[in-house]
Amino acid sequence: MEGKGRSLPLRPAKRGEGLLPYIARRVLLSIPVLLIVTIFVFVIMRVLPGNPGRAILGPEADPATVEAFNRAHGLDQPLPVQYIRWLGDVLRGDLGRSLIDGTPVSTLIAQRLPATIELTIGAMLVAALIAIPAGIIAATRRGQAVDHAGTILALAGLSIPQFWLAILLIMYFSVRLGWLPASGYVPIWQDPLFNLKVMILPIVVTGLRESAVLMRMTRSSLLEVLHQDYIRTAQAKGLPGWIVVVRHGVRNSLIPVLTVGGLQLAGLLGGLVITETIFVIPGFGRLIVDSIFNRDLITLQGAVLVAAAMVVLVNLLVDILYAWLDPRIKVSGGVRS
Amino acid sequence: MSVRKGIRRFLRHRLAALGALIIFFLIATALFAPYLAPESPVRQDYNAILQPPSAQHLFGTDFLGRDVLSRVIYGARASIEAGLISVGLAMAIGIPVGLVSGYFGGFWDEAIIMRITDALMAFPSLILALAIAAALGPSFTNAMIAIGISLVPGFIRLARGQVLAVRGMEYVQAGRAAGAGHVWQMGKHILPNILSPLLVQATLAMAAAVIAEASLSYLGLGTQPPNPSWGFDLRAAQGYLTVAPWLAYWPGAAIFVTVLSFNLVGDGLRDLLDPRLRQ
Fold first, then answer.
1. What is the CA radius of gyration of chain B?
2. Dihedral through CA A204, CA A188, CA A113, CA B237, nearest 10?
3. Do B260 and A156 count as a contact with CB atoms less than 8 A apart?
4. What pLDDT shows up at residue A334?
5. Does A273 touch chain B (CB under 8 A)?
6. Which of A208-217, A271-280, B81-90, B122-131 reaches the highest mean pLDDT?
């Protein structure tokens, strides 16, 4: 991983050159991680509750019913047998069936994904629109009042609990002004305008937090770039300040920002659990909360597994993208090594 | 840097000093809650339901006629306790594992511990905490265990990375040449030299843990009613936004200020302890 003993290539590498071996290595490294993820999910869902049948049916169920339930779902088998069977099903794309109405868990997840994808893309757009200009302003005015204000605002953005921000926005925009509905999601293809009205607040709540992380990253990344020799060269050539910043600074500083944006997905997915609950959006996060309160451990298990697998895949794609954009990465072995 | 010089420099970092002051105040509030709160946080008064802030009830009363100020004061206990215990748990597991893993290196480190850490990091931490809390059953203790586990991989990664950075240093090699055993090396020569970044991480993890506890309680998987918890009280407040908006202000503001303080101190400590940033 650390690429010990490997020398740097003597000629400059072309973009994309040598990428395939890197991709192959990264994909291979992801397989054991995904396998361990399945073990964790299995341990949390099947081992931690002690008696899964009891956990699902509740403390008031009589022992005979619990035993029958466990037998019917293969939960009375030895744990390794249960795991291998479950893993086999998962590999075939079968995440089991909901304990509530027997719908396949994969169908439930597929039904919930559009809302979550819309929220995620919207939040990322909001975050980028706020964070990148704010980060550039803060970095170019380092140490000035506007930089300090930006730093404090970003820290506040990181510290504000999303559910509180959501409640405050609902109180103001829905209750007091009556401009936006606080709930009542409709899919975007049914009524785009109403969908937008319902989604604005959750998108802003999620996006503001992400913008705080991205803004800090943009600022520090640009600051690092602005100290490089080629910036001084560009300045010495007599280029106007903003051209130096935009053409030579921002372009080079955005690569790590892009990566951080991708890596933020894990945090964003976690936040969606809360946002979707408050705004009653039938998304993926809400599915997790619903399955917890319905004691639907099978759906919960599938959803948690899919969440972690999505993070692994996005991290993989981000690493590959990063290597493609910045050829130095291929040599040193990876973004986070 | 001597301790006194360090403290002086920290206090000069105004925002961090402000954060530390608020944390001190919060801990005092949590400790002395019975003396500070005007009433018991669980005492119900059906003659004073949903009363707006007044001289008698500075923050108003909730839907059961309980004094909101008292609940906010007692809520500091749940938050601080949850933060300390879950971060303590995460450090107790994460630091030794990262230390040993980084120190010995090799197959166990690369192929086992790091892959397990990668897998743990793949779980969005709130979803991991939710799943564990749901599997163990809703309770304050289980919430702390769940949050603690979700914070472990961060400490493993950081501790290991720091060990890798100092492992090849001359003083560590000198220790080895002088015949120091592995445990002595790790405890005496390595651990004290990697404490600064771990301290920063611990402070930032406190902020994350306080938000996580509030989130789990908000969803009903943390502190159980009628015990006061900022997260749960916010959930309850949501049903009364039109008639009693004050219920939503105070618990949320308390979480915000607490988390902000830990983040301010964490950021300040990082500036202070990272020589590259100190210019």
1. 22
2. 50
3. yes
4. 46
5. yes
6. B81-90
- ipTM, two decimals, is 0.88
Helices (H), chain B: 3-12, 14-31, 33-36, 68-104, 106-107, 114-122, 125-136, 140-167, 170-177, 182-184, 195-218, 230-237, 246-273
Task: Please identify among residues 16-75 of chain A the ones whose CB lies closer than 8 Å to any CB of chain B.
Answer: 32-34, 36-37, 39-41, 44-45, 48-49, 55
Ranked by mean pLDDT, the top range of A102-106, A147-151, A316-320 is: A102-106
Cβ distance of A273 and B245 shorter than 8 Å: no
- Interchain contact, B259 vs A161, CB within 8 Å: yes
> Which residue reads 């022992």 in tokens?
A63
Q: Is the peptide bond before B245 cis (omega within 30 degrees of 0)?
A: no
B18/A contact by beta carbon, under 8 A? no
Instruction: Give B1-47 pLDDT, tens digit per residue.
Output: 577 777 777 777 788 899 999 999 999 999 998 998 888 888 887 88
User: Band of the pLDDT at A327, cuts 50, 70, 90?
Assistant: low
The rounded distance, in Å, linking the Cα atoms of A85 and B239 is: 44
Q: Are A26 and A320 in contact (CB under 8 A)?
A: yes
Domains and CATH numbers, chain A: 15-99+295-325 (no CATH), 106-286 (1.10.3720.10)
Q: Convert the pLDDT of each residue in B39-53 to its tens digit.
A: 888 888 788 778 888
Residue B267 backbone phi and psi in degrees, to 5: -60, -45
- Mean pLDDT confidence for A96-114: 91
Query: Considering chain A, what is the average pLDDT of its residues?
Result: 85
Using the Cβ of B277 and the Cβ atoms of chain A, whether some distance falls under 8 Å is answered with no
CA A19, CA A8: separation in Å to the nearest integer? 15
HSE-CB of A118 using CA atoms within 13 angstroms:
22
Contacts of B119 in chain A (CB under 8 A): 33-34, 36-37, 39-40, 308
